[in-house]
Amino acid sequence: MILKILSIGILIYLLWALFHHKRNKSLTLPIFLEYLLTAILVLILILGVIY
Amino acid sequence: MVWQNWFLPHKDTHKKAHLISWEGLVIYILLFILLQVGFSIVGYVEPGVLGIAGNIDQKKLIELTNIERQKKGLPPVSENGALDQAAAAKAQNMFSENYWAHFAPSGKTPWDFILNAGYKFTFAGENLAKNFTSSDAVVKAWMASPTHRDNLLNPKYQDIGIAVAEGNLNGQKTILVVQEFGTASNIAAKPSMEVQGRQITVPEEDLTNKPTLALTVTETRPNTNVLINPYAVSKVAGLSVIFLIAILLTVDVWVLKRRGVFRFTSHNIAHMALLSLAAGSLFMASPGAIL
């Protein structure tokens, strides 16, 4: 259940980041990496406790 | 000062502090992967060092099960020695064959253990739990899952058998709870067993050629020795990293505001929102699992 909520949160976060920065024409590789790596970090942290 | 660039935005370029830039995030990810790999290596080299110390009582589990049944107006189930033996044999088999499932990789079924213990049944059911630290938490988790709750509150059952056993599963000290329910066979009916919400009719050949499982059942009681709890270590480390990143993101916003600088970058508020969700999830997450 926790993993499901967190996965939905991550999906919203990444989609929002993509749309927002694309619209602002500010989407660069380092910016995209910051979002992607934050999402990966959060997922790794929770998986370390659940499994 | 170079060290300041790790914590504060760069003085001239206003670039994010290293610890909240993508380079810093890569470092955190690698450290956490290293931590998990380290746990796996320790579990392999020194089985039993890692694990969870719990205080689960077999009698308390039966008592809590009956409390839940009585709440729904159902008759209580009575402890049955043969079902206790079947549960203990099942737990021991999970440790010896190193699996976490209702059906063993070697093909043993849940009813094999019950029949082998000498309990002839019309209806039976099995609930499993691992890595919980208290009896209350186990029953609460079963009650929160529809299939396990249906088993626990099944009006057909008359008897119960529970085993709480400690052993090594995948290199980690694990506390297993096996709960077997049953209704002794006193009518000529085809026996069936409820496993994970599925009603399985016991095949005829399993009844005629009753399996003989060569298992010596020794009840092991979980101890409360302090071990290295990998879940607690991961939780504390994870919350610490989230807390550090949250502070550095706040400092980043504050410093840029003071400098009156606008910078094209990812949004700290969005990161903070996801980190808050992660912190909440980490806080609530538990290694306890049911099957």
TrEMBL record, chain B:
Keyword annotations from UniProtKB, A to Z: Membrane, Transmembrane, Transmembrane helix
Stored InterPro entries: CAP_dom, CAP_sf
Ranges where the SCP domain occurs: 63-179
One protein family per Pfam: CAP
Matches recorded under CDD domains: CAP_bacterial (cd05379)
Segments crossing the lipid bilayer: 25-45, 236-256, 268-290
Name of the protein this chain belongs to: SCP domain-containing protein
Organism of provenance: Candidatus Daviesbacteria bacterium RIFCSPHIGHO2_01_FULL_40_11
